[in-house]
Design a protein that fits this description.
It is a single chain. With 391 residues, this protein is α/β, with parallel strands linked by helices. The protein has two domains: 245 residues, Crotonobetainyl-coa:carnitine coa-transferase, domain 1 (Rossmann fold, 3-Layer(aba) Sandwich); 78 residues, formyl-coa transferase, domain 3. Helix content is 37%, strand content 14%. A six-stranded parallel β-sheet has the order 3-2-1-4-5-6, with helices on both faces. Strands 7-8-9 form a three-stranded antiparallel β-sheet, with helices on one face. Strands 10-11 form a two-stranded antiparallel sheet. Helix 1 crosses helix 8, helix 6 crosses helix 9 and helix 11 packs across helix 13. The longest helix has 24 residues. The radius of gyration is 25 Å and the shape is elongated. The protein starts with 15 loop residues before the first strand and ends with a helix. The model has no long low-confidence stretch (mean pLDDT 95).
């Protein structure tokens, strides 16, 4: 399907976003807004564009790397040299057509360019100005550079994997999780500010600090035993950090099973050839609670290994036991649910050829999300967008 064949849609249809973001946090946020129907105008440097463009291999160019392609659909690219008077003048004209102005540059750098909140609001008083920063204003870290690993470190996230295993070395999650989480908070903040504007007519300045928003997200359950200062306990939500929290090996793959009751566990074990597990010598002879837990999970592992993943999926559904196949990266594309809903979609970028993308997961009955535009080349829409702005 080509972008031109998809009509404008989505609950944010009619909202224009002036996007000065790079890396992961900002592009993830603005792509989400674009998926929701907003007209996202991505401002890029004519000298190379978004810094993610040249990360990883593309079929034919050095400017359409995998991560850029994953984060920049449903956007129109406008190439402007913001160090030049002409580039600044063009951006000012675009600001006057916008509803949202969003960036993840350091605030002082934006002010030096002449596009801090005061300058932008003077051009468009009802603008929703969203500034994603590493550390909130008022704290000693404010103004420092921030990247995903730095935020994972400061938030305590690097101490979570050590809580769940024998490796006590602090380390980040193997995902750009802080950037993506904070990108979603930027979307939430933008939608809330647009709702405020729809009620009052007022635009406003919105700060999205990575450290505060990500720490609140990642530590919600892990403050746990320190929730009440007068009742000391341990950090870490017990069922989240247990080393037993992992998929079971089946005959041909992996399965996660979470029985909702003792009866569910008994049934699963019985289906796996272990009868009356809780009255077995193995379980009853365990010396303490920890040993009984280990005995239980040992039996679950043995039971899982007796059948194929597909067999378990069918049997668990029949017996109302919560379970799901654990996909390896290599099996994702063949998962029957993803295939049925068309989640992984092959499309085409004119300059590169076929590429694979993931469709928006949200569904709206009246204003559906859609992929209207494939990731753009640098400045692909400059003339078109500036013409719309009256240039």
């Amino acid at each position: 399907m080509t972008a031109k064949s998809v009509p404008a849609s989505g609950p944010l249809h009619g909202v224009r976003v002036i996007d000065l973001t790079q890396f992961v946090l900002g592009p993830y946020a603005t792509q989400t807004l674009g998926d929701l129907g907003a007209d996202v105008i991505k401002i890029e440097d004519p000298g190379g564009g978004d810094r993610q463009r040249n990360q990883g291999k593309a079929p034919k160019s050095e400017s359409m790397g995998p991560l850029f392609v994953a984060l920049n659909r449903n956007k129109r690219s406008v190439a402007l040299d913001l160090k030049s008077d002409d580039g600044k003048d063009a951006l000012r004209k675009l600001v006057c057509t916008g509803d949202v102005f969003i960036h993840n540059m350091r605030p002082e750098a934006m002010k030096r360019l002449g596009f801090g909140y005061a300058e932008v609001a003077a051009l468009k008083p009802d603008i929703v100005y969203v500034e994603a920063v590493g550390y909130g204003s008022g704290g000693p870290y404010n103004g420092r550079q921030a990247f995903d690993d730095l935020i994972q470190a400061a938030s305590g996230a690097c101490d979570l994997l050590p809580l769940s295993g024998d490796n006590k070395e602090l380390r980040p999650f193997p995902s750009i999780i802080a950037d993506k989480t904070c990108g979603l908070f930027a979307v939430i903040a933008t939608l809330a500010a647009l709702q405020h504007r729809s009620r009052t007519g007022e635009g406003q300045f919105v700060e999205v600090p990575m450290l505060e928003t990500f720490t609140g997200f990642i530590q919600a359950e892990h403050i746990w035993g320190h929730t009440y200062p007068d009742v000391p306990g341990k950090f870490g939500h017990p069922t989240s950090i247990t080393p037993h929290r992992k998929p079971y090996k089946t005959k041909d793959g992996y399965l996660v099973v979470l029985p909702a009751s003792r009866d569910g566990s008994v049934k699963f074990l019985e289906l796996g050839g272990i009868a009356d597990a809780y009255n077995s010598e193995r379980f009853l002879s365990a010396v303490d609670g920890k040993a009984r837990v280990n005995a239980y999970y040992g039996m679950m592992c043995e039971a899982a290994a007796t059948r194929s993943t597909d067999d378990w999926m069918e049997l668990c559904a029949e017996n109302h036991i919560p379970a799901m196949r654990a996909n390896e990266m290599s099996t994702l594309f063949d998962d029957p649910h993803f295939k049925a809903v068309g989640f992984f979609e092959e499309r085409e970028i004119a300059s590169e050829g076929r590429y694979r993308t993931m469709k928006p997961g949200l569904k709206f009955s009246k204003s559906p999300c859609s992929i209207r535009l494939d990731p753009p080349t640098v400045g692909e829409h400059t003339a078109e967008v500036l013409h719309e702005a009256g240039d």
